[in-house]
Amino acid sequence: MEFVETLRAKAAELSKTIVLPEAHDERMLQAASRIVDTGVASIILLGNADAIGEKLNELGISSEKLTIIDPELSTYRLDFTRYYHEARKHKGLGEDEAAVIMKDPLFFGAMLVKKGMADGMVAGAVNSTGNVLRAGFQIIGMAEGTDIVSSCFVMVKPEWDFGENGMIVFGDCAVNPQPDAAQLADIAIDTAGTARALCGFEPKVAMLSYSTADSGSGPDVDKVIEATRLVKEKAPDLIVDGPLQLDAAIVPAVGKSKAPDSPVAGQANVVIFPDLDAANIGYKLVQRLAGADAVGPILQGMAKGVNDLSRGCNADDIVNVVAITALQCQ
Q: How many domains does the chain have?
C-alpha cells in the first residue's frame, strides 16, 4: 500500500528510537529486524538479553543493529525507581513497590521515553490495551492542552473520490465510549493533528451526528454543537463544522444541498464520531464492506509517542505502528 510505504519512508528520515518492551515475542523480533534493516527507526528491545539473543539466533536475525536492555539488571533501574516513587508517592506508592514495578518492561520502557532515551514506545502484542495505557499515563502523561487519550484510524482506499488522496481519518474508534462535549473537542483537535502529521494534508474536520445543522434535535445533537463550538474556540485556525451527517460531510452534492454555507460539508477528510459505538461500527463497516485498509488504531493525546497493538498483529503491523510512532514524535 502506497500510504504505508510513504509512512515508512517519512519515518526513516527522522532517525527516531522506539522501544519495544515485548521482546520475547517472535513477531516483535521479526519486526525489529525489518525496522532496522530498512532504516525506519532505531530499536531498543527489553527483556533478558540471553533469552532474546537465543531467540534471535533461532530466527536467523542479527543482533548487531539492535539495542537490548534487561530492566532487572539495568543500571538505569535505580534512578528510574526513585523518579517513579517520587512521582507516585502521593498515591501511596512505596519505594519497594516502585522497585518491583520498574522491573516491568512496559513501565521501564515508558521511563526510557520519559527520560529522552527513546522517542516512543510500541506494545500490545502481548499486553492488554489497559496495561499499555496505564504505563503511558503514569509515567509519560498527557500532552499539554488535552485532557484525554483517544485514537484514530486512517481509512485508505486509493480509488475513493471521498476524503483526500484516497484517505479519511476516523476518530475515536477504540478508546472512549461516551465522550462529553469537551472530550469530543479534544478528540477532534488531536485527530486533526494526527491527520496532518501522517497524511500530509490540511484537515477539514466534520463533527458527525444524525443531524445536519438544525435538521434534528436532542441531547446528542446538543453535545456535538457544543463540541464544535469548543473546537473553534481552542483551535481557531482549524477548519471544522458540525453537526453534519456522514453523507453531508463527505459527498459534495449532498453537502452542497444540506449545508451550502459549510466550509467542510462535502469535502471532509477527518470525521469525528459522537461515541465509540458509532465509531467502532463505522470503521469496521468501511473496512469490511468497502474494502478499505484501516491503519491503526493510532493513540493520540500522550505527551510523547506511545501506541498500542492488537494482540492479533503480525510483524508488518508492528513495523507500520513503529513508523507512525516515529512520525508522532515530530
A: 2
